[in-house]
Design goal:
The structure is a homotetramer. Chain A has about 375 residues and is α/β, with parallel strands linked by helices. In chain A, about 35% of the residues lie in helices and about 25% in strands. In chain A, helix 1 packs across helix 9 (about 320-340), helix 4 runs parallel beside helix 5 and helix 5 (about 110-120) packs antiparallel against helix 10 (about 345-365). Chains A, B, C, D: One of its GO terms (molecular function) is oxidoreductase activity.
Chain lengths: ~375, ~375, ~375, ~375
């Protein structure tokens, strides 16, 4: 498939991000096929056409079923509200398309399992949009761990916080409902940190979770009585990894001042690695080596020594941005499709993340084995 | 008591810290009684004499029982190994002395309870050396919370980490034993963070704890077989405060690169406060006020606007140090004694901290109510 | 001109950056014309064709003169070595093209003046690639200053440092020659900071400069005798702005550990603004307002409140990258062309920067009025 | 002199600092003589007595001439307003006392020269209170440079800023006069940075200075007409060190948000060292060694590996404070007196600093050789 056709459903936050990524991926990475921006789906019709024009797609439609069965479409990108992921992904897979789906995978574990099953049956490639694991800084952390740079791993901490639901006076939205949004902070942001945790530490074998809704009701947008918030504002857990290590995890969507805070620490017997997404071009490394008077955390600025940074710019410290991570993700997906190998994280990999967040949500302070 | 006589037991890390504090407290704070550095206890005899000379104590002894009953001694400072705290403190109280005891209060809950009982019976003042809560930055955090600067409190995180037991090849010491050290990281450092947490959030009503010994044996210092480590290297917990809020807590003595890392975050409905002891002269405050384009975490450098900083130097941003915190603590104790009011944290207050750390140690992943 | 044709000369570091920018600009900004990637020039021929394929250009050529006179080309982007800028830009202007030229504008003041003259004669739009001034954080700094957020301006400091010439053993290259590179750190990086300084403080009226070549010779790449370094490794200056304020400026290409450090401080009578390009999504603001106990530098994370950040992603704190700045620059140039107004910084504006850096280079410690 | 008698003139900001330092120095450093706090001078009489009581001095006086000639006084500490330094120091030296004088040494170069001459004639020890050079972090920077850790030195930058004169509405004080204060920011803070610069880089051979009074008048404290500010609010200079390196220097007393900002960078051919007094327990070191993917600035937290930190506390990262630096200074002075060797910086050393700041003040943009 020398020029795979892209069908994109959704033109919002992540829809634009996908459009930019598939638009730039071939210019950034000379070694991937050139995607054709074939078909864009949104509603109403004039919006679909306008956004197709803006994003550089050849055609527009308001019918996602037409998109997933369009013969010129090879890859379906799903960036719609979470409750639509399962139906769209399964239909696309059944139509023989590869599927690039935004996180969280689905609203419920049942949906996620059905998607995984459909992927298996289809023989097509799937990928879930855990874009933060594409960061060269994160990839370098993985490489360092693999090389033993911090010794045997003994502990993990990961926190992911934003403040978009911090204001108690913010009106009620669909985000507050189980039916539309599923889990709260856990599903929206927590899953990102778990993708990072598993990539660094390996699978999670048990969780003890505790979730809280700190703003129990919110003003109705139509006026009248306040409406209930049905899902978690804050979720925390003590994890145990398959390797036996303890992990600590917390996520909040009500953490004032945090805009995209995703902090992790990996503790090892020879050193520590620390990262914060709000300074996404830095990796912090402590190693117990050299004279003790000169030891300290090193702030490593990413550069060409941290692939694939150099594909964006040859100059170190010049900084990648959020949208660049999706471009790397698109390249990985195109490569997996070209090679006929499973992409990471596939639906199967993402299902494991869903199992963790749903276990945390259900735990109520008891240990749940996975 | 215009010039209370100080009897200090121990001349090590915290012994020196107490000596410096009581030596400086009157010069720093014009409004406290001038302590007399009366009697110093250590062994052997020549060491006791030498340290008395260095620290400016009038007399020296090798007999702590003589010290606690010495008529010229009004305040007994206990900075000996933890297993000796209970016996010494109780004897001092029974001899009618006020007691300034280093943390952790005792090895076991039984000891801590006996100490609290003895304090109550004696009618004397007690204080446990939770020096970090004396930091003007911490006190300012308390003041801000009290004034509602960050609204209703909704979440807490606190982490305290050092690396003094991070090296797997470090020889076995008494620190590894329950009999000599009691709890591990929990008792040595975790209790500090809990003193800070309770001071900010109020009492803790339940914990779910999980502790780990990551270096299960250590080389025997005498050679031969490796010896077992009996207490926690890492301890984590999900807390619930009496006010209903969730808290997250973790402590490690095996966290490479952390020297005195004591990080807390208090999340409120109107803002967040963040602090790190490794930058102890800074407080980080986010408030949801003013134009959103100008919002951000403010790095507040402590100064005379944050009492009692100004007693040390009138110039802001000039920095207090670790030993200065003990001087503030000494002033607080002297004032409580002069006023005949209970000091904070008294043995009774510190017992509540002991109850939390022992509950975390015993929890094994189950919720324990306090 | 609904779909202006882009002719790009050069496919290296900045050539790729231009290709990505003009490829993405319409998807990012719905309100600009959609550029046609028309013609790409590089040598040899197969490289030109390959890069045209990768970057999405319709045609390729090895002849830049053909490119600048191609009727399908409306905008010529010049990203070649600095010594070629003048000839190419003037030819393009004479052929009636708009010119988007990388910095520094030219090797010599004479060249820069000739380019400015050609631009004036042509009536076409010109822009020099001072991309860092496109940063929403920088634009917010300008807005704050304009609104009086930090009062009357009293002082400026600006430093720009990298380490690509820090290693004394690095072989000699064309960068070391006046004939090929012109000025050293001043021409390569210093000019960026001066574009920022002038944008914040206004024109510069005099300089006292002092330049140093700290690695006076370098190993010849062909072996044999070491070869001389003819231009500045480090350049510093005391500036006076037209408004009377003092400024301090320094740049080094031999500053170990600095990868893209561009730090500025603007001191005002009511506050201070600080910025560092190595953390390009943050702006630091101190204002003398509110209770003194809560004053401090605020770390503002850029977001949709800082246009045009929101065109890239609606979520604050998610981070723009280096290449995104060029996309903003391309949008500005397309808008200026569409509107028929002068772009900023045009050749005329950039000439003022050239005059400053050449005055610094020539000063030898004496004040030079501009 | 087993117990040198201390005579302290002044009980303000630095007077208290000296009292605390000489009160603690023997307890902190076991290997120095125990100072006797003998005589304290201030006015009026009741204040002198009260402060003697608070600071632990045996006697009080209102007559500094009595103090400098008191037979029980061996060391005279001068912490009075700068205009009194010369007369007091010379009288003390003539009375055969050692003199520990606060910075800046004097108001004028003539005074500083007379003091140096008096010191030479007396054969007594002198020291000027450049306390920041006592910081273990600074001392470690010196050690690293001496060991070649950053190679040959090629460049220096040093900035020292506060905001105590930033508010334009602040009333006029004696600080604004040449007769009472001498130089402005240069004399009050700039000299500190020059003490640090010379200690790291060696002597300064020429300066090009530029000074500014940005608040030219201030409200009269008695009301009525505004009064003129006669000295520098901001002073900047390009330095040349005797070793040939360029240095950049700036100081402001009107820099909003800066409380005790003293930042220096030493650039070498193999690395860079960076320090900021507002985070005085950290030293930042970049070395060009090891894999490039792991290079970065290391944040070294001071600890026992950085003498004499360990004399204060055996635990790394526990932080020294501002007053601790004066204690180290007192120990150095006591040791020099005991050993009969010259202390650093003596009056002679400090005279060199005065020559630099007065040259900067006089330069008006011309190079002045020293």
């Amino acid at each position: 498939m020398s020029a795979p056709g892209i069908g994109l459903i959704g033109t919002g936050f992540m829809g634009k991000c996908h459009a930019l990524a598939y638009g730039a991926v071939r210019a950034v990475f000379g070694d991937v096929p050139t995607p054709r921006l074939e078909l864009l789906c949104d509603t109403p019709s004039d919006k679909a056409s306008a956004m197709a024009g803006q994003f550089g797609f050849a055609r527009a439609t308001v019918d996602w079923r037409a998109l997933v069965s369009d013969p010129a479409v090879d890859i379906v990108c799903i960036t719609t509200p979470n409750k639509l992921h399962a139906e769209m992904a399964i239909a696309a897979l059944e139509a023989g398309k590869h599927v690039h789906c935004e996180k969280p995978m689905a609203l419920t574990l049942d949906e996620a399992r059905a998607m995984t099953e459909a992927a298996k049956k289809s023989g097509r490639r799937t990928m879930v949009g855990y874009n933060y694991i594409r960061n060269p800084a994160y990839q370098h952390a993985r490489r360092l761990i693999g090389e033993g740079a911090i010794g045997r791993l003994i502990h993990f901490r990961g926190f992911v916080d934003e403040d978009y639901q911090a204001d108690p006076d913010l009106p009620w939205t669909w985000r507050a409902t189980k039916a539309e949004a599923g889990l709260g902070a856990l599903g929206d942001m927590g899953c990102h940190m778990l993708s990072m945790a598993i990539g660094l530490m390996g699978p999670i074998s048990s969780v003890i979770g505790d979730i809280r809704t700190v703003h129990e009701t919110r003003p109705s947008p139509e006026g009248g009585e306040r409406r209930p918030v049905e899902n978690d504002d804050i979720a925390s857990a003590i994890l145990t990894f398959a390797g036996g290590q303890q992990g600590l995890f917390s996520t909040s969507r009500s953490a004032w001042g945090r805009k995209n805070s995703m902090i992790f620490e990996v503790h090892g017997t020879k050193g520590m690695i620390r990262f914060d997404q709000e300074r996404m071009n830095e990796l912090h490394l402590f190693q117990n080596s050299g004279p003790s008077a000169e030891q300290g955390f090193r702030t490593i600025l990413t550069g060409p020594a941290h692939p694939p940074y150099g594909n964006f710019t040859p100059a170190p410290g010049h900084q990648l941005g959020f949208n660049d991570l999706k471009t790397i993700e698109a390249a990985e997906f195109l490569r997996a499709i070209a090679a006929g190998t499973e992409a990471w994280p596939s639906f199967r990999d993402a299902l494991a993340i869903e199992e963790v967040i749903h276990a945390i949500a259900a735990s109520q302070g008891r240990r749940i084995d996975l």
